[in-house]
Write a structure and sequence with these properties.
By secondary structure, this protein is an alpha+beta fold. It has 2 domains: 6-66, no CATH class; 69-204, Aminopeptidase (3-Layer(aba) Sandwich), CATH 3.40.630.30. Helices cover 27% and strands 30% of the residues. The protein has 5 helices and 12 strands. Strands 7-12-11-10-9-8 form a 6-stranded mixed beta sheet, with helices on both faces. The protein has a 4-stranded antiparallel beta sheet with strand order 1-4-6-5. The chain is globular.
C-alpha cells in the first residue's frame, strides 16, 4: 500500500471511558481516498466518519479494539441462533445511502433517547447524511422492518472484500430482539452469499459502558 500521511489530534476527554484522555490519527483530508485504499486501511483498523478516515491512537490506552471477523469461519452460537429465530419475521431491504425522511426521523429519535447530551441529537438533514455517507465509498442503508414498520437501520460500506459497519440506529423500544447479534448474523449471511471474506464491525471496548 502507498505511504499515507496521517495527522494526530491533541488529547481530549474520551467519549467512552470516564476520566480517560483520547487521541486519534486521521488520514490527511487532502488525500484522495477511494474504496480500494479504504479497504486496505480498514484491514489495519481504520474506520470512517463521513469522509474522514481515522483510528484511535491513545498514548496510555489500547482498549479500542477493531473487530474484523472472517465470514467463512463464522458459525452462529446458541444465543445468536435463538435471536435469529425470534426475529424470523423481520425483513431487510438494502438501499443506497440517500436521504429518506423515515430514516432521518428514526435517527433523531435514537439520538435523543440514547445520546441526548450530544450535538448529533439536533443534526440537520445535511449533517445526518454527511456523517453516515461518503463521497468516495459505496455505502448502503439496510432497513430492518417488522410487519411493514421500520424497526432499525444499519449503515454499511461495501469494501473490496468485506462489509464494514458504519452505524446502526433504532429506538430502545424496537421489537427487534438483541439487534446487534441479529445484524451481525444477517451481515455474515449476506457476505457468505456474495463470497466476501470479512465483516468489519465497530471498535470493541471491553470496559466501556456505552
Amino acid at each position: 500500500m502507498t505511504s499515507i500521511p496521517l495527522l494526530i489530534t491533541t488529547p481530549h476527554p474520551c467519549s467512552y471511558l470516564e476520566g480517560q484522555r483520547a487521541q486519534s490519527v486521521y488520514v490527511v483530508p487532502s488525500l484522495e481516498i477511494n474504496t480500494a485504499i479504504y479497504s486496505q486501511l480498514s484491514a489495519y483498523g481504520f474506520r470512517r466518519s463521513g469522509d474522514d478516515v481515522y483510528s484511535p491512537h491513545c498514548e496510555h490506552c489500547s482498549q479500542c479494539v477493531p473487530v474484523r471477523l472472517p465470514v467463512a469461519q463464522f458459525k452462529p452460537n446458541r444465543r445468536q441462533k435463538r435471536c435469529l429465530q425470534k426475529n424470523r419475521h423481520t425483513t431487510t431491504i438494502v438501499k443506497p445511502a440517500a436521504f429518506e425522511q423515515t430514516h432521518y426521523d428514526l435517527y433523531l429519535r435514537y439520538q435523543n433517547q440514547r445520546h441526548a447530551e450530544g450535538n448529533m441529537a439536533s443534526s440537520s438533514p445535511d449533517e445526518y447524511i454527511g456523517f453516515l455517507g461518503s463521497s468516495w465509498c459505496n455505502t448502503e442503508f439496510i432497513e430492518f422492518s417488522i410487519a411493514g414498520e421500520l424497526a432499525a437501520v444499519a449503515v454499511v460500506d461495501r469494501l473490496d472484500n468485506a462489509l464494514s459497519a458504519v452505524y446502526t440506529f433504532l429506538p430502545p423500544s424496537s421489537p427487534i430482539i438483541a439487534s446487534a447479534s441479529m445484524q451481525c448474523c444477517g451481515k455474515f449471511n449476506m457476505r457468505k452469499n456474495k463470497g466476501w471474506r470479512g465483516c468489519t464491525l465497530d471498535f470493541g471496548l471491553p470496559t466501556a459502558k456505552k
